[in-house]
Design a protein that fits this description.
nine-stranded antiparallel β-sheet, two-stranded antiparallel ribbon, 2 helices, 61% strand, globular
């Protein structure tokens, strides 16, 4: 299955606790918790461009599987990381945050980010 497509956030778990743990200010957490984000993924072979639009904030990351890339975190910080792929799953570690994005079926992406004991889960559906 290909990741390419546009996905809308359908549900999320532990948003506030996770955002607090990564140091996002309460004001931004309150603003962001009810905004539906749109993720657009372009996949060309092992190269990806991921654009996540949440309200007026746009986060764009481009990377090639298995190669070091500069990736922007949720807090806006740029970090060097290597995204690995295992079939329909993309995995990356960003400053202690383990991120796993899985294409669970042709229309659903589940992204799980773990920091310490806090697991933030996002479920998005293809639009």
């Amino acid at each position: 299955m290909a990741f390419t497509g546009k996905y809308e956030l359908e549900s999320q778990e532990n948003f506030e606790a996770f955002m607090k743990a990564i140091g996002l200010p309460d004001e931004l957490i309150q603003k962001g918790k009810d905004i539906k984000s749109i993720s657009e993924i372009e996949e060309t072979g092992d190269s990806f461009k991921v654009t996540v639009t949440t309200g007026s904030k746009v986060l764009v990351n481009t990377f090639t599987v298995g190669q070091e890339a500069d990736l922007e975190t949720v807090t806006g910080e740029k970090v060097k990381a290597v995204v690995m792929r295992d079939a329909n799953t993309l995995k990356v570690s960003l400053k202690g945050i383990e991120s796993v994005t899985e294409l669970v079926d042709a229309n659903t992406i589940v992204n799980t980010m773990t920091l310490g004991g806090i697991v933030y889960k996002r479920i998005s559906k293809r639009v």
